């Protein structure tokens, strides 16, 4: 029932937001939408934590068999959506109170926010691949009006590019899913779910499986923002209101990548490695150089998303348990950190009312909270220690070296280094120095809910960099087991699901764990 | 005796496939917004025709449902949704701007259609032969590529949307042959998605027209990266 409740809560909040209360009481109207949205998101987070603990303990949760279920990887994504959704809802309260023009527009924002949140939650909960496609497509449809929310020339242009690219990717991915279903039926599959696909994979014609994978990789790759299909991403992620950007950059790209990762157990890693490594490295490389010439700090974080998606794709391309572990860790770290960065960018917008890097100096003096948050977010997302991204990137580089992919690892390290300077170079100029203008802008106080959201958002970034709670570690291992299959040559089609799977890394050594739980 | 109507139906399916592909070429070649819409509607009707034939031959209610859904949504609901939001755009008979001229586009479309046939061959071989997939898969794949091409070269909002919707038509044209047992719920959800897309794009196009004064979305190029001074 908890899974159904998770889906119903944002819809209930959305219905409350639709009620026009302005005529009865303007105070009530101002409160009802943000409070309903925040309460729904917090309740979703509480339920997601409970369900994730349940899954981490080795149980499975089934709401509607073969349609709505939860396993290791989906529990982790659900947890991320709940966490980021809650901080974004909290931040929206103060942010939209200052930025929205009129009560009706503000209500409209919360309606779209809840619909988008609902679609994001539906992706990990659905286990039927076609429904996952539909849920991912809904994330695009429900978020496009958030991108266009400001109704400026730039916002409308970004929204148009966004929807066109999203649907083109969706159509290509739909074709891929239909071919996948064809292969599944030819392979004698019975129950069309992620688990059913994995069971039928050894008997599915490899040519069909590979074609389906490639089409889904390209189709959903557009939604993830892989280079060269990324052109919509910096536009859309810079034009939407900042809390919506937190969902777009922190979650929407992640759930599309989640669907791609779900297909990895269907093919031998050597079949997918070349594609994943190539796309991943091109994305990281292009994004790292683009980061050097960005003039808008929200676009800076958007390009950083392209970079991070490339890093995750590269890690998955390594094709080992440690690579997958790094990829999932990076997904986790990216989501919490990038959403924080966009909230910090929103705080900066509230403080200085511009997005141009060159127009801002001494932000820490104008608004200490916004300046500190921007610096904290910049350091964390660039991969500085001791934050979560540093740990995940380190584990990915280590996985690459252990796999013997020296060139790919060296290129990845180089691009990460370039991106580090690209991100911090711009932010450093904004945060420090003497404020521009004569007289300089007055000191600005951020709304209380914005500061609180930033404080709450900073906690997982810091904690995950130095400590991993045991339930989370178990969940990560279960997520790795979900997407990782060892291949044994000689079976039908040259592959067979292994009787045993390596499950993540040992806590102490960081080496792949054997089924006995000991490091080799 | 039974083989005769089956053969006839198979031939009719092939005819529907041929006309479906012709409509995709028509969308590439037409110069007017309404012409583009008419080709899209005709394409949807040929998809429905193929769905009815395959549904009858395969005794599949799911495939028949695809036909019914297509007959209701594509020729009626989608044009209605578009005309509600962008009426002026739909009824104008103006020339469509596109990046490449028509003869060049048709040549590229021809190359794409031939490429689709070659791409489908190994898939059909792996699946163990022909059946209806031998007709529907290459045509569906060709339609997908032509739809993507149409969306890429059109600069006006509505023809660009129709190119995208033609891609979905094409995916389903192949889908009814290769995945006839697809759960009905998924088909309904995809149709709902397409309707939502048409509504949202219509709304967006109207807003763009109101704020910017044009629906030539190809000309929206203010968001570009420029080096720092």
Structure explained in plain terms:
- The complex is a heterodimer of chains A (520) and B (229).
- With 520 residues, chain A is mostly helical.
- Chain A has one domain (2-494).
- Chain A has helices spanning 2-18, 26-56, 72-99, 103-125, 129-147, 153-186, 194-200, 206-224, 232-239, 242-261, 269-290, 297-318, 321-352, 363-366, 368-382, 388-403, 406-431, 448-466, 470-483; strands at residues 61-64, 68-70.
- A two-stranded antiparallel sheet of chain A has the order 1-2.
- At the A-B interface, helix 5, helix 6, helix 8 and helix 9 of A face helix 5, helix 6, helix 7 and helix 8 of B.
Q: Give the rounded overall mean pLDDT of chain B.
A: 85
Strand order of the largest sheet of chain A: 1-2
How would you characterize the largest beta sheet of chain B? none
Q: What is the chain-wise order of helices and strands of chain B?
A: HHHHHHHH
Total discrete domains of chain B: 1
According to DSSP, the number of beta strands of chain A is 2
How much of the sequence of chain B is in beta strands? Answer: under 5%
- The domain tally of chain A reads 1
Shape of chain A: globular
The most extensive interface between chains reads: A-B, 52 and 52 residues
Shape of chain B: globular
């Amino acid at each position: 029932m908890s899974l159904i409740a998770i889906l119903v809560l944002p819809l209930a909040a959305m219905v409350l937001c639709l009620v026009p209360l302005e005529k009865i009481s303007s105070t009530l109207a101002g409160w009802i939408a943000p409070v309903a949205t925040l309460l729904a998101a917090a309740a979703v987070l509480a339920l997601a934590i409970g369900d994730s603990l349940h899954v981490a303990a080795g149980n499975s949760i089934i709401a509607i068999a073969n349609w709505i279920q939860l396993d290791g990887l989906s529990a982790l994504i659900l947890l991320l959506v709940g966490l980021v959704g809650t901080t974004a809802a909290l931040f929206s309260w103060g942010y939209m109170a200052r930025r929205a023009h009129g009560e009706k527009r503000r209500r409209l924002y919360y309606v779209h926010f809840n619909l988008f949140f609902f679609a994001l939650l539906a992706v990990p909960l659905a286990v039927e691949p076609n429904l996952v496609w539909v849920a991912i497509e809904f994330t695009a449809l429900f978020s496009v009006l958030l991108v266009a929310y400001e109704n400026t020339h730039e916002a409308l242009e970004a929204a148009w590019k966004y929807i066109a690219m999203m649907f083109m990717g969706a159509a290509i991915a739909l074709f891929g899913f239909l071919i996948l279903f064809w292969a599944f039926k030819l392979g004698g599959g019975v129950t069309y779910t992620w688990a059913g696909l994995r069971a039928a994979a050894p008997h599915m014609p490899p040519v069909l499986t590979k074609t389906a994978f490639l089409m889904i990789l390209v189709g959903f790759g557009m939604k993830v923002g892989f280079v060269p299909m990324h052109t919509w991403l910096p536009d859309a992620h810079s034009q939407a209101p900042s809390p919506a950007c937190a969902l777009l950059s922190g979650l929407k790209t992640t759930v599309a990548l989640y669907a791609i990762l779900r297909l990895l157990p269907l093919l031998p890693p050597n079949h997918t490695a070349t594609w994943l490594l190539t796309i991943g490295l091109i994305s990281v490389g292009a994004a790292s150089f683009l980061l050097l010439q960005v003039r808008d700090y929200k676009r800076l974080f958007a390009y950083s998303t392209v970079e991070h998606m490339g890093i995750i794709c590269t890690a998955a391309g390594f094709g080992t348990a440690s690579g997958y572990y790094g990829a999932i860790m990076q997904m986790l770290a990216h989501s919490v950190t990038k959403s924080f960065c966009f909230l910090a960018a929103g705080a900066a917008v509230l403080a200085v009312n511009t997005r141009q890097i060159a127009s801002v100096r001494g932000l820490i003096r104008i608004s200490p909270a916004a300046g500190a948050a921007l610096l904290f977010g910049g350091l964390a997302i660039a991969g500085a220690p001791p934050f979560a991204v540093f740990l995940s990137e380190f584990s990915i580089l280590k996985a690459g070296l252990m796999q013997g992919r020296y060139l790919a690892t060296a290129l990845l390290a180089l691009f990460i280094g370039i991106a580090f300077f690209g991100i911090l170079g711009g932010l450093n100029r904004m945060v420090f120095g003497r404020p521009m203008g004569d007289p300089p802008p007055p000191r600005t106080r951020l709304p209380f809910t914005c500061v609180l959201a930033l404080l709450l958002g900073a906690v997982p970034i810091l904690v995950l960099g130095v400590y991993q709670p045991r339930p989370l570690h178990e969940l990560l291992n279960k997520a790795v087991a979900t997407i990782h299959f060892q291949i044994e040559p000689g079976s039908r089609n040259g592959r067979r699901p292994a009787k045993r799977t390596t499950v993540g890394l040992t806590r102490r050594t960081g080496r792949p764990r054997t089924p006995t739980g000991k490091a080799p | 005796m039974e083989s005769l109507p089956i053969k006839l139906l198979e031939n009719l399916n092939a005819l529907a496939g041929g006309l479906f592909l012709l409509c995709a070429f028509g969308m590439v070649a037409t110069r007017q917004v309404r012409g583009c819409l008419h080709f899209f509607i005709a394409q949807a009707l040929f998809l429905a025709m193929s769905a009815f034939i395959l549904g009858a031959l395969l005794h599949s209610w799911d495939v028949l449902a695809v036909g019914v859904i297509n007959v209701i949504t594509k020729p009626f609901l989608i044009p209605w949704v578009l005309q509600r939001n962008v009426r002026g755009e739909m009824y104008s008979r103006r020339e469509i701007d596109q990046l490449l001229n028509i003869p060049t586009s048709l040549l590229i479309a021809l190359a794409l259609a031939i490429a689709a046939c070659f791409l489908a061959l190994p898939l059909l071989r792996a699946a163990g032969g022909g059946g209806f997939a031998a007709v529907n898969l290459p045509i569906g794949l060709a339609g997908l590529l032509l739809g993507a091409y149409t969306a890429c070269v059109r600069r006006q909002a509505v023809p660009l949307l129709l190119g995208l919707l033609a891609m979905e038509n094409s995916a389903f044209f192949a889908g009814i042959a290769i995945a006839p047992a697809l759960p009905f719920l998924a088909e309904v959800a995809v149709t709902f998605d397409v309707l939502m897309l048409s509504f949202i794009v219509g709304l967006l196009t109207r807003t763009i027209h109101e704020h910017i004064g044009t629906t030539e979305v190809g000309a929206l190029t203010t968001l570009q990266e420029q080096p720092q001074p």
